[in-house]
Design a protein that fits this description.
Elements lengths: L1 H7 L5 H10 L1 E7 L3 E2 L1 E4 L2 E6 L3 H10 L9 E5 H11 L4 E5 L7 E3 L15 H5 L3
Parallel strand pairs: 4-6
Antiparallel strand pairs: 1-2, 1-5, 3-4, 6-7
Helix pairs in contact: 1-2
């Protein structure tokens, strides 16, 4: 993901990075038959996603799981942000390459996730909910 590398170098555009993530296929480890791997941190639930099999293998090693046997789904970033994050039922986002040297968080904010589940979305702005 070129935009991700540029952003990490301090010269990228965050909006372009999110746009590139939305168009990219990422690997999402499965937990059981129907769930994907998530973790709660900082009051949010994070769906784990990885940009490559190498990044996924680093995660498996960190969790002391078999590198070859970790089941995963391949999905578009847009599907994670637009469907999976709202389905969490709690505020959440996507944690990208969490075991790698350069992890990235896509938090539940406008322009990243649907406004209805964004922490700075309509309900947060109006105080309704």
């Amino acid at each position: 993901m070129h935009q991700l590398r540029m952003l990490r170098a301090g010269v990228g555009d965050p909006a372009l990075m999110v746009a590139q993530f939305r168009l990219s296929a990422v690997l999402v480890p499965r937990w059981g038959e129907e769930a994907v791997w998530t973790a709660d941190h900082g009051g949010l639930r994070w769906i784990h996603a990885f940009t490559s099999e190498e990044e996924l293998a680093a995660f498996a090693r960190l969790k002391e799981l078999p590198v070859d046997g970790l089941p995963y789904l391949t999905v578009l970033g847009s599907r994670l942000l637009d469907v999976a994050v709202p389905a969490l039922g709690v505020p959440g986002g996507v944690a990208l390459d969490v075991a790698g040297a350069e992890p990235m968080l896509l938090p539940p904010m406008r322009g990243i996730v649907p406004d209805e589940v964004a922490l700075d979305g309509p309900m947060a702005v109006t105080g309704e909910g």
